[in-house]
Amino acid sequence: MKSFIIKKGTALALTATILAGTLVLPTNGNANAVYKKTLTQQAVDKAANTENIPGVIVAVKNGDANWSYASGEANIERNHKVDADSAFRIGSTTKTFVATVALQLAGEKKLSLDDTVEKWMPGLLKGNGYDGNKVTIRQLLNHTSGIPDFLTPELKNKLLENPSENYTPEQLIAHALELEPVTGWAYSSTNTVIVGLIIQKVTGETYAEQIKKRIIEPLVLKDTFLPGSSMEIPKKNARGYLNTGDKLVDITVLNPSFANAGGDMISTGEDLTTFFRALLGGKLLTPEIQNRRK
């Protein structure tokens, strides 16, 4: 992996930050709409010139007002500017896709959010203070399961040493269970990896196959992928970096299995905006489940 001295503050894990959603534009004339767009672009430029953010992409879809804008760098080392249609690893936004499939299955009565992990994955959570009978799918989705994140400093170091190493979801979960349980709300990618396994148990297909069938294909997300263990990324991409303190390490080309259902997807600003607009607009979930999300 390439590394170089930090020149611009510190970098986020993802080079591009997506502001995905709907920008409400005024209805009293094109001039105000243009003004709002200009203000947004200025805000994006400002964000891209602050520390911690190498580049920003904004995509807007609101009726006929569909546009995108990018500012900052896609490749810090080569000083390449980020483009609005650049692909990139979306990291934990993957969790929203996985959770959507789980909620769809709940809406179809194929599982209940109050089902325990033990019901679907017997013996997966046991020992060291863990009990699959006491953890529900709902708790996995809202990060109150008590299960810590597997992505420890130790695992990050292993990733840097061997970015091509393959990880199974069972390995990631086992690593998390070596740690002490956490209390209250605690963000953890381990939760979503477990949800991915439950999706597979319920449907007979991997979470990746289900996301493709239920979300990517119906919404025609042409630049959204679930790479599995493939290290490839589209040629036109925004690089991803890991801040190691005094250096940035380009971790774009790696085996995404280390993230699994917690963060392995690749997408673009336009595709993410299409997805979130459909999700928030009630097009992906039953009315009952959609209302319970609010």
UniProtKB/TrEMBL annotation:
Matching entries from Pfam families are given as: Beta-lactamase
Enumerate the spans annotated as Beta-lactamase-related domain. 42-291
Highest taxon of the lineage? Bacteria
**Signal sequence extent:** 1-33
What's in the keyword line of the UniProt record?
Answer: Signal
Q: What is this protein called?
A: Beta-lactamase family protein
- Gene source species: Bacillus clarus
